[in-house]
Amino acid sequence: MSSRTPSLYSQVLAFSASLGTFSQVPGHAQPGRHICLTPSTCFPIDKILLPLMPSTRTVSIALVVGVLAAFVQLLVRPLVIVLGVLRPVSPLNNHNCTTDAQLQGCEDMVLDERSGLLYLSCSDPSHTTHWLPYWQLFNADAVHSDSYIARYDPATARVTRLEIAGYPRDPARPFAFAFHGIDVVRSAADPAELFVYAVNHRAPPRGAARAGAGADSCVEIFRMRAGADVLTHVATVADAAVVVTPNDVVGAPDGRAFWVMNDHATRTNTLYRALELYLRLPVTFVGYCEVGVGCKVAAGGVLSGNGIARGVGGDADTFLVSSSVGGKVLSFERQADNTLNATGETVIGIALDNVSVDSEGAAWVAAFPKALALQDRAKDVSVLAPSAAFRVSSVHGAGAASGRTLQVEKMFEDDGALVTASTVSVHDVRRGLLYLHSAYSTHLTICRI
After folding, report:
1. Per-residue pLDDT averaged across 3-19, rounded?
2. How confident is the model over 26-35, as a mean pLDDT?
3. Which three-class secondary structure state does DSSP give residue 6?
4. Is residue 376 within 8 Å of 384, Cβ to Cβ?
5. Among residues of the chain, what percentage have pLDDT more than 70?
6. Which residues are paired to 249 by β-bridges?
7. What angle do CA 91, 92, 97 make, to 5 degrees?
8. Among 74, 133, 152, 351, who pairs with 368 as Cys (CB 3.0-4.6 Å)?
9. What are 303-329's pLDDT values in tens digits?
10. Phi/psi of residue 132, each to 5°?
11. Cβ distance 172 to 285 under 8 Å?
12. Spatial contact of 389 and 355, defined as CB atoms under 8 Å apart
């Protein structure tokens, strides 16, 4: 762990250890006398309340017990579970894997099913300790190179960094590109043309009121010919009310419209962002934007939204959103006005990141078995954070709406030595490969499953 000031991770672990001194066998737990964080971790109320009770004993024990029990049950216990504080790491399918160090720091990736090529948004992993809006790291002057979009050919292991043409660079900005979530979509008018949509957490221009402003985030749209090495810039879409804290994007096949998932309700308000987490406030939202028309909220009331993906084939109107702190995948159906109506949810139970959909319609979700380790990893690239990937067997909107339970399977887990803090998992059905990467990783990991 980092030698810096103790992080939230270490503080929670210390608190958990103190609770462990009071832990009881579940069968011995008595209602009204014990509080349980999990079925196997309970502690006596009097051991916790005794230091808190005034010597006069004027405060009602029943009232204090009730308030404490409600606090633990409604707020602490769900967070302890989803953040994996007490969860052991159980490695799975992490042996038949190879790595490729040509690709580093790739937060998101998309498989083009027709060509079998993988497209990735990447940057120098060390930049995440200086510039990462999700963690409110905004030291733009310490970032000395742009992010880039790369293409990976699994048949030859060839990596191509795509050139960007036609982009109006602003010399006042410390850097032009800090890519995050991306999507690659075949054109509906010309299948030989690809549209690439990329979240760009660009820095405000030097000389502007940068203090406290955070990132000047937007979504970039590019087009390219299949097999070409050049991305031609189409548009930059920025909207301070709708493209607020963009994390991931789903593009339309016309090269003009997209849906974007915002991961927080505010860019820089530290207190409010903390309340979002600890009070589990459903305040994040999906935006919809169309070039030349504008942006609007497509779906609100999302708890800690992170990744967003679209179904395939007959499920193209089904959208999936990963709720990071909620530990679940939310299902939505596209409406005629391009808003999204919630239709159901699938509980996975641990913190989640990006979601992708394979050619068979299964959803693949990157997960964090020990989510609090991410805070230390964001500050120190030598820290390892465990990774996992889950598969949800169906994304059919009607099924989700009818309340049918979808099958959830853990398909991969690692202690962080092979894959650290994986932010994305993509399944290639044709080749039987699972790709895993992370904004923090020094290599692409490819596993046969």
Report:
1. 41
2. 50
3. coil
4. no
5. 79
6. 260
7. 105
8. 351
9. 999 999 999 987 899 999 999 999 999
10. -155, 95
11. no
12. no
